[in-house]
Amino acid sequence: MAVTPVTAPPQRQPGKAGPAPRIGRPRLFEEVCARIRADIVSGVLAPGDKLPPERELSASLGISRHVLREALRSLENAGLVRLTKGASGGATILDGRTAVARSFQDGVDLGHVTIDELTEARVQFEGLVVTLACARATEEHFAALEADIERVDALTRSGEVKARTEYVTHFYEILASATGNRALVIVSQSLAGIVARIVERVKPDPLYDLADVRRTFLKHLRRRQARKASAVLEAHFETLRAHILAAEAALAGPPPEGKEPGKGARHVLRRRNG
After folding, report:
1. Cα dist. 245→110, 148, 152, 186 in Å?
2. DSSP output for 34-95
3. Domain total for the chain?
4. CA atoms of 176 and 184, how far apart (whole Å)
5. 112 and 211 share a domain?
6. Beta partners for 84?
7. Residue 246's CATH number
8. Residue 11 lies in a domain
9. Is 214 in contact with 152 (CB distance < 8 Å)?
10. Residue 79's closest CA among 66, 67, 95?
11. Per the domain annotation, does 261 fall within a domain?
C-alpha cells in the first residue's frame, strides 16, 4: 500500500550561511504523520491495510528510517496504527474510531474524568440517541436489538460473565446505528467501551436483570416513547455507577483511620493495583 511522498526541507550546506528556518515549520516526522493521516481520511489507506516494509516505505517517502520510526510511533500513540515486530510484523492501519475511545479512556485513567461525570455524559448522550432512534429506527433495528438482548440473556444464564462483559456494548452500537448518524455511532461505541473496560477492571457484581431492563427499554422504543425509553436507560446507568463505585471502594480497602472515604462527583477511579 503506497503512501503519498513528503518533501523534506532543503538542507543547509556546511560552512555556508543560509536563510533562517521559518518559525513554526513542522518537523519532518510530523509531515510524515500528516501525510499518512491524510491518506487514511481520503481512503487511500483503509483499516486493516499494512504499510510497506520500513526500508521500502522510507525510500518511497524520501526520508530516513529514523524519521519514519518516529512518525509511526506517534501514529501508534494516537491509535491510528498498530506496530508489531517479527518477520510478519510491521505497521497496520487501525479503525480511526479506536483513537476516539483511547482519548476518552486516557481521561478516565488519568483522573481527569470521574465515573460520575462519565455517567452524566452517557445519560445526556444516549438521551439524544434514543430520541433520534425513536424517529428513525426500522423493524430491522428492533429485531437486531431483540436478538442482542436474547444473546446477553443466554450469556447471563450460562454464567459466562466475562464473555457478557466483552459483548454487552454491542447493544449500544445497534441503537446508535438506528439514528443513521455515524458520528453518534462512534461516540456511543467509545463511551460504552470505556465503561466495559472499567467493569472488567474493578469487577462489580453482575447486573443479572440486564436483559429484562433492555426488554423494557425496547418495548418503549418500539412504541416510539422516547422519554420512557430514556428513563429506563438513565436508571440503568445510575445503578451501574453505584455498582462500579462500590466495587472500586472495595478494591481500595478501608480509608486511613480518621478519614472518610471520598464520595460525590469528584470520586476518581483508581487502577486496580495502583
Report:
1. 17, 27, 23, 26
2. HHHHHHHHHTSS-TTPBPPPHHHHHHHHTS-HHHHHHHHHHHHHTTSEEEE-STT-EEEEPP
3. 2
4. 6
5. yes
6. 90
7. 1.20.120.530
8. no
9. yes
10. 95
11. no
Query: What b-and-e string marks burial along 147-180, b requiring 16 or more CB atoms within 10 Å of the CB?
Result: ebbebbbebbeeeeeeebbeebbbbbbbbbbbbe
pLDDT in tens, 144-193: 999 999 998 998 888 776 666 667 788 999 999 999 998 899 889 888 88
Contact (CB, 8 A) for 153 and 211:
yes
Domain limit, last residue, from 51, 68, 93: 93
The number of residues in the chain equals 274
Could you tell me whether strands 90-93 and 81-84 are parallel, antiparallel, or unpaired per DSSP bridges? antiparallel
194 within domain boundaries:
yes
pLDDT tens by residue, 42-68: 888 888 899 999 999 999 989 999 999
Q: Extract long-range pairs of 251-257: CB within 8 Å, 24+ residues apart.
A: 251/202
Question: Could you tell me the sign of the dihedral formed by the alpha carbons of 128, 131, 136, 137, in that order?
Answer: positive
CATH number at residue 84: 1.10.10.10
C-alpha dist (Å) from residue 71 to 78, 104, 152, 248 = 11, 23, 41, 38
What would the grid cell of residue 64 be? 530516513
Is residue 221 located within the same domain as residue 126?
A: yes
